Amino acid sequence: MFENEEKTNIESLGEFGLINHLTRQFNLNQKTTIKGVGDDTAVIDFQGKKTLVTTDLLLEGIHFDLSYTPFKHLGYKAIQVNLSDIYAMNGTAAQVTVSIGLSSKFTLEAIEELYEGIYLACEKYQVDLVGGDTSSSKQGLVISVTALGYADEKDIVYRNGAQEGDLIVVSGDLGGAYLGLQLLEREKLIYLENPNIQPDLEGKDYIIERQLKPEARRDIVQLLKDQGVKPTSMIDISDGLASELLHLCDQSNKGCNLYEEKIPIDPMTYETARQFNLDPTVCALSGGEDYELLFTVKQADYENLKNLVDISFIGYITEVAAGRNLITKTGTVHPLTAQGWNAFKNE
Ligand code: ADP
Ligand code: MG
User: Fold this and answer.
1) Residues 177 and 302 reside in one and the same domain
2) 53 phi/psi in degrees, rounded to 5
3) pLDDT computed for residue 346 by the predictor
4) Residue 98 beta carbon below 6 angstroms from any ligand 1 atom
5) pLDDT digits (tens, 9 = 90+) for 85-119
6) Which residues face 145 on adjacent strands?
7) Residue 250's Cα: distance from chain center in Å?
8) Which residue's CA is the closest to the ligand 1 atom numbered 11?
């Protein structure tokens, strides 16, 4: 996409030169985009549909670590995490804006790579880059993405719609992104101690990719539509299954029974958790960043969904007084708690 091999100082382009350089390759694919980059605002026309808006702020050193995150992956992920929120409303993602803050340590080539990832994600998911803002920063890289989408009012799925007896369903598998992060962090420490040692991530592609290059589950939203199923509640998994399921229960004012043995965990995730002396189930419950969809459906929809390969039935919704329970593989019942991504720090 860009053919620049050198290390170019961004200041040599100027702000407008840089914006033009970064955005001119992007195509507009959405008919809902009336005006993209280049005026005071973008102009969008969702033609009577409800507008969905979501935004995320990513700070270097807090949300990402450039010592093991390639710029291209970072750009790709920054888009995905926002699209994931639109899909979690059962909506269609249509536009994004991307704002960046850059310190002087970043070359033009680094930012080009970031935008290659952004471009890749936009093309793949057919969303239009319609604006943003560009600024210098004192320290490090700041990225903020806003995604816009739409849905018919009757199709929107909120977090608060779960009913007693509904089945709890999750897409894909869980815990992989967290273990990918553990591997990358471990290799970083080894490298810092001895820069001559090459990172050893062989055979771990899947979980590294789960961390660095997540895919928002547009396909699941489409699959549900194809099956004529509208979830009663839905959320995307950014903070771990436990935390997200508790959000659904809280907002729906319900309880739940979650079955440990039903939680989908990939074999590589399982094996890597064991190597790190971590409980694979805890990684799935509290690891986060899997960007899978967690939703509830009416029992009557079971027949429509039971043969689909990439979804798992992991429990059911109960009355609020029954509590939120995890039923372990040995049959003991634990209260479900959200420990968040740093639940393992003291182990
Ligand atoms: P304004 O002065 O109105 O903030 P700017 O000069 O910052 O406008 O931006 C000019 C145009 O370029 C606008 O359409 C804006 O949305 C877009 N833009 C600015 N920065 C970025 C960026 N990092 N990525 C994509 N578009 C951008
Ligand atoms: Mg501006």
Assistant:
1) yes
2) -130, 135
3) 38
4) yes
5) 999 999 999 999 999 999 999 999 999 999 999 99
6) 56, 98
7) 22
8) 38
**Are 97 and 207 within one domain?**
no
Nearest ligand to residue 17 Cα: 1
Over residues 316-321, the mean pLDDT reads 98
For ion ligand 2, residues whose CB falls within 5 Å = 133
CATH of the domain at 31: 3.30.1330.10
| CA-98 nearest atom, ligand 1 | 24
Quote the mean pLDDT of the chain. Answer: 94
Task: Please give the Cα distance from 244 to 236 (Å, whole number).
Answer: 7
| HEC per residue, 178-213 | HHHHHHHHHHHHHHHHCCCCCCCCCCCHHHHHHHHC
The token duo for 144 is 């903020």
161 lines ligand 1 (CB under 6 A): no
CATH number of 211's domain:
3.90.650.10
Q: How many domains does the chain have?
A: 2
pLDDT tens figures, 182-204: 999 999 999 899 988 887 888 89
- Residue 320: the pLDDT is 98
**Residue span of the structural domain in which 307 resides:** 167-335
Q: Is the CB of 212 under 6 A from ligand 1?
A: no
Contact 36, 27 (CB under 8 A): no
Give me the amino acid identity at 94.
A
Crossing angle between the packed helical segments 267-275 and 176-193, to the nearest 10 degrees? 40
Last residue of a domain, one of 108, 134, 155: 155
| Residue ending a domain, choose from 100, 129, 155 | 155
267 and 291 inside one domain = yes
Nearest residue by C-alpha to atom 5 in ligand 1: 133
Residue ID of nearest Cα to ligand 1 atom 18: 132
* Domain assignment of residue 222, yes or no: yes
Global pTM?
0.94
The 128-136 sheet, strands edge to edge = 50-59, 142-151, 92-102, 128-136
**172 and 126 within one domain:** no
